[in-house]
Amino acid sequence: MTRTLRSPKAIRLALGAAALGVVASVTAVVAPPASATVKSIGIHPSATIGTHQYATTCSYTVAVTVDDNTKPVYFFEEGQGPTGFAEAMPSGNAARVTWTPSRTGITYIYAIQAGSTVQMKQVIGGVGNGINTGSACIAI
Question: Using CB atoms within 10 A of its CB, is residue 89 exposed (0-12), middle (13-18) or buried (19+)?
Answer without folding.
Answer: exposed
